Amino acid sequence: MNTTKAHTPETKTRRVTVRHTRAQDVPRLIELQRRTYTMIEPWSEAKFANQLEVFPQGQIVAEINGRIVGTASSLVVMWDEWPVEHSWAEITGSGRFDPHTPHGRTLYGAEVFVDSSLRGIGVGRELYRARRRICRALNLRRIIACGRLPGYATHAGEMDIDLYCKKVLWGDLTDPVLSFQLHEGFRYCGVVPGYLPEDTESAGYASLIVWLNRMYDSSRPTHVAEGDIL
After folding, report:
1. What CATH number does residue 104 fall under?
2. pTM to 2 decimals?
3. N or C end of the chain: smaller count of CB under 10 Å?
4. Which residue has the higher pLDDT, 117 or 162?
């Protein structure tokens, strides 16, 4: 299990730990999601339960002193079967993860959210690090995700979404999500319109990003693991 020390004075003695999600975590995750995304309806207990049934190894939480402070959810897909312009609802089965394909080669990042009061202390970094460990452990080719672009709301009247993303790439602007993902080693692949229509901060857009697993071995099949793989 991976740990890291936090970096703010009030949390410097705490440690962030990442583990697989358990059924008993679901009520706390729903409440955390409700606080994090006030404009988006939180997932139901049934959706969380289905995710855990379909692909338990892809669902993880971050804790500080036993308190859940973040989570990341993912499924495996056969990426070549999906169009670049897809929606979150389509590729995740509206959050149920029914499109999960065990023999696929791509770990698809469906969601990451972190307690807004604890951003900047390394919670997101540890969740992304754990996701990369899952990708390697399962011998998957890559991680693909579509990230929110919450900084766009401030600039939507000045520029279109393509220019906004380019300015983030060039370092002229900072987006809370895309800038972080680039720092985590992801590559920007373009914009997906209508990805999450209810995300008004991003005007429904998302950035398509990819991280390539350099340890991927094409001669071996995807490793279907059981139990804890972190």
Report:
1. 3.40.630.30
2. 0.91
3. N
4. 162
